[in-house]
Structures are given as structure tokens and as C-alpha cells.
Backbone:
């Protein structure tokens, strides 16, 4: 297993709240438009696509897809989307939300090793807010990276392991302001940008972009910033 049983159980308990914009997943709803816009920008630039239709015909894999918050807008923009999650509750919630809208998203339960065929390849593989929940980041990144097609992209977002992130992402978000359920994160599992880049490089990728994100919990607003010491997102392109 590339995920922790306790993490899976916790997300199973929260799975019914994924599509409640005022519930425990509110921070993800607030940041989702920002992240989707970033993905469209980076994908259009990398593949030389028109900004209006950057996803037409592209295959996208979202590892740790949760309830499908990112899968759905990408599918609406023409991507062939596969979502994989280790929580059965998350996958069930994603399917329930997508089906009435007629969205053809291939949701699967399991980690990348169990849920995907070894020969499956995708133009873009996403690891959004998931690497901080796994016990072995290099192995997890390597397993997901094997499914990136030649010339494809790997995009990951997570939280830096700094004193500032402990203060803001755990003490502030989980205990003082309670915008996240207590126990959502473990500071020791946060991932430094250099550690994430080293894992990607070992898998044959080179970083093409890195930027920080600021989330203001009292205002429920998010924006991109230069500082990566709390939340950040990085894009990697397959070498060769």
C-alpha cells in the first residue's frame, strides 16, 4: 500500500461532505478555481494548445481525486479523465456527483499500483493535495510518474514542511480557526519543494514551474504568491 490505513479511514468518514462548499472541504472549494486555472495555463503552454481549448483529446489522470472537484471541470473542458482514490467513500461520492450531470469520468478505487494497468499512459498526471498523506513520497511519485506518456506533464500540489506551515496549516487552520477537521494533516509528512523535485527528477522529470499559494481562512480567499513555505504547486515535464 502506498497510503496509510488511518488516512483512508478518515477520508471515508468525510466522503459525504466533498460537495458541500460550506463543509469541511470548503478550503478545497475556495482554491479549486485557482488550481484549475493553473492547470489549464500550464497544459496549454506545454502542449501548444489554444487557451480556450487546452484539453481537447488529452488523457488526464488525477491520483487522489477525492470527490472529483478537479476531475469534473477538466472533463467539461474536453479531457478524458480518470480519477483514482484509495478511499472507497471518496470514489462513491465522486461517482454520485458526476453521473446525474452526464460526465463520463472513469473513477477507480485503489492506489496507482492497484487501480491502473501497467501499460496505461496519460498526457497529464495530477498529484494534488495527496503526497502529504503517503508514507513514502519518492515511491509514490515514481509509481504515478510511470503512467505519464512521453512528452507529458506531472503536476503536484502540497504543503511545505516549515515552521510557518505548522503555524498556519495545523495550529491556525485545524485548532484555532477550525476551517479543517483536526488531524487532517501531520506536519512530519509535509513535503519540501526540494524533496518533491528530487522525487520527480529520480522518475525522469524536470521542473518547469513552481509557485506558492496563499489561503486566507477568515476571508476564504486564495491567490498565487512567490512564497512557497506553506502551500505550493509544481509542474514537471518528462525528460527526453
Residues:
Amino acid at each position: 500500500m502506498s497510503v496509510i490505513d488511518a488516512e483512508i479511514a478518515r477520508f471515508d468518514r468525510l466522503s459525504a461532505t466533498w460537495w458541500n462548499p460550506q463543509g469541511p472541504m470548503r478550503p478545497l472549494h475556495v482554491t479549486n478555481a485557482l488550481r484549475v486555472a493553473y492547470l489549464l495555463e500550464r497544459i496549454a503552454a506545454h502542449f501548444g494548445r489554444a487557451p480556450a481549448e487546452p484539453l481537447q483529446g488529452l488523457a488526464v489522470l488525477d491520483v487522489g481525486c477525492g470527490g472529483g472537484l478537479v476531475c469534473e471541470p477538466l472533463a467539461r473542458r474536453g479531457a478524458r479523465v480518470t480519477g483514482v482514490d484509495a478511499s472507497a467513500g471518496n470514489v462513491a461520492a465522486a461517482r454520485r456527483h458526476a453521473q446525474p450531470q452526464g460526465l463520463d469520468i472513469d473513477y477507480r478505487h485503489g492506489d496507482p499500483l492497484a487501480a491502473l494497468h501497467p501499460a496505461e499512459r496519460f498526457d497529464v498526471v495530477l498529484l494534488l493535495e495527496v503526497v502529504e498523506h503517503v508514507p513514502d513520497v519518492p515511491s509514490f511519485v515514481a509509481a504515478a510518474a510511470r503512467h505519464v506518456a512521453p512528452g507529458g506533464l506531472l503536476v503536484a500540489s502540497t504543503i511545505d514542511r516549515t515552521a510557518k506551515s505548522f503555524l498556519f496549516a495545523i495550529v491556525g487552520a485545524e485548532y484555532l480557526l477550525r476551517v479543517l477537521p483536526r488531524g487532517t494533516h501531520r506536519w512530519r509528512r509535509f513535503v519540501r519543494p526540494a524533496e518533491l523535485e528530487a522525487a520527480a527528477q529520480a522518475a525522469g522529470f524536470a521542473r518547469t514551474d513552481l509557485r506558492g499559494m496563499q489561503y486566507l481562512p477568515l476571508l476564504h480567499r486564495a491567490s498565487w504568491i512567490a512564497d512557497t513555505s506553506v502551500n505550493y504547486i509544481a509542474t514537471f515535464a518528462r525528460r527526453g
